[in-house]
């Protein structure tokens, strides 16, 4: 069902909105103006949301703000709207599973998923308020190959049995280890120790009696 909020603009109001749209650098204000102008031309909220790539509820809020108080400027403090309790839980769950290195990436995700605009500073405040810290995850060694481990143990035992009593076993690296995964910082739950498996490959030592 297409929801339409009828907005009637005088030629002067329309001209003022178009001039403000062309002069402002704030994309959030431009989105609000476009929503109002399109609604005045008979577009439904669904159509406006699709055209502006924002959530339909955001369009409804923009239009309501304009009808009630001709409001075009978002609230100060980082966001023009707040996440609901359900949206907050969804975002916390998402950020717990996926680590973002930069706040602007989270801002973009919130915009795409919920249709809400946050500034970087506003999102930083949200993250700290909801128990996230910007820190480095813990690295854990790459998993060893169990078959190779067993083969090494058997080879070592055989080598030890073949060495004389006055000989020692010396090991050298047969291959160079691969580079380890770079563990960067990211937004992680303060109470969570998030681990990342490194790509460091274990040495494959070659032993001999000497």
Automatic annotation (TrEMBL):
Domain Winged helix-turn helix: 98-156
InterPro entries named among the record's database cross-references: Homeodomain-like_sf (IPR009057), Transpos_IS630-like (IPR047655), Winged_HTH_dom (IPR025959)
Name of one Pfam family that matches: HTH_29
Signal peptide residue numbers: none
NCBIfam families (alphabetical): transpos_IS630 (NF033545)
Protein name: Winged helix-turn helix domain-containing protein
